[in-house]
Amino acid sequence: MKDARFTIPNAGLLEKVVDIIDEIPMDERDTKGDLYEYMLGKIASAGTNGQFRTPRHIIDLMVKMTAPQPMEAICDPAAGTAGFLVQAGEHLRQNNPNLLTNAEQSRFFHHSQFHGYDFDSTMLRIGSMNMLLHGVEDPDITYRDSLADLHGSEEEKYDVILANPPFAGSLDYENVAKDLLSLVKTKKTELLFLALFLRLLKPGGRAAVIVPDGVLFGSSTAHKALRKMLVEDHKLDGVVKLPSGVFKPYAGVSTAILFFTKTNSGGTDNVWFYDVISDGFSLDDKRNQLATSDLDDVLGRWQQRTTTEADRARTDQSFLVPRSEIVDNGYDLSLNRYKHVEHEKIDHKEPAEIIADLETLEADIANGLAELKALVQ
Q1: For range 181-210, the mean pLDDT
Q2: Which terminus in the chain has less CB density within 10 A, N or C?
């Protein structure tokens, strides 16, 4: 809490604050993150360093799809309010009833399972408090410029990476860690973070990462090299296309979630695509809750991606694309490249029926003209 400022000037105001906090529901909620989102909403812009919170339901989907297990080290190198780590902890508790009664698993959960990095001290404080409020006694939430610092001590350390890293930014080559530039030579933060994730994951480790659409189809050498690396050197599991309003009111950027497994030896066979039409909220700045959502379907079909999903047509919301086709398309991962649009079927009459209809119409017109002529006379 170094350099934190508490501006509560008198005892009466402190009492009021304590009463308000006492009424806030703490169960299964990213409370500090909610407060931060509220503040961001009030100033109607993102934070100083471009932070904006990933919606809770998107985090929940990504955690369920990666399914973290006890004794797996989980990392978010752009942690912010630690929303991904909090949700991963909740998922572990809900799906492993003996997690905290097993001495080894409990010790790992509290002291070694969760790792988050950020270079904003305010975010570190919020993230640490968030983890503590959700029952993690000693989370590793530390200061680190993930793209600038060398990663020798962190290399191949984590089993799961969950992240929504900053994007649409660029750095000078001099400020980027040399071990990342050895993987992909670029200034773009979204590509550098993907290279970082590949470096941090253990072989067999898996990642769920939000990326801007440009990563999927960008034509620069770095874009193509990174996509080729994911497809050829590792195992690209899936691409979930999100609607463009998911991050409103902070940003209207169009994004997708990449799911991949680090193998160092390839393994991509088929890549699973899903086109999310509705995330359960309106896609305007108000983000009102809707009655329908695709997210449960995303999770269900993800779990069937090696079985029944193989029979899905390219006109469906989800389908598989073989690696060979992705290679032939220059490692383009944009969903529209592979999805087929189903055109509306129109019933056409046979030519003989059309001619008969025209003859009938012609006779009706002739009769009508004859009747009109008789009336005039």
Answers
A1: 90
A2: C
Q: Which residue, among 209, 116, 200, has the nearest Cα to 151 in the 3D structure?
A: 200
Cut 0.85: pTM above it: no
Domain map (residue ranges) of the chain: 18-337
Cβ 187 vs Cβ 232: under 8 Å: no
Residue written as token pair 């383009």: 332
- Give Cα separations from 374 to 150, 314, 362, 363 (angstroms): 98, 62, 19, 17
Q: Report residue 313 as tokens.
A: 């047509």
Q: Residue 62 and residue 85: Cα distance in Å, rounded?
A: 11
pLDDT band for position 314 (cuts 50, 70, 90): very high
Would you say 235 and 266 are in contact if contact means Cβ atoms under 8 Å apart?
Answer: yes
3-state helix, strand, coil in the chain (%, to 5): 40, 15, 45
Instruction: With beta carbons less than 8 A apart as the criterion, state whether 195 and 158 touch.
Output: no
Give yes or no for residue 298 having a pLDDT over 90. yes
pLDDT tens per residue, range 44-55: 444 444 456 788
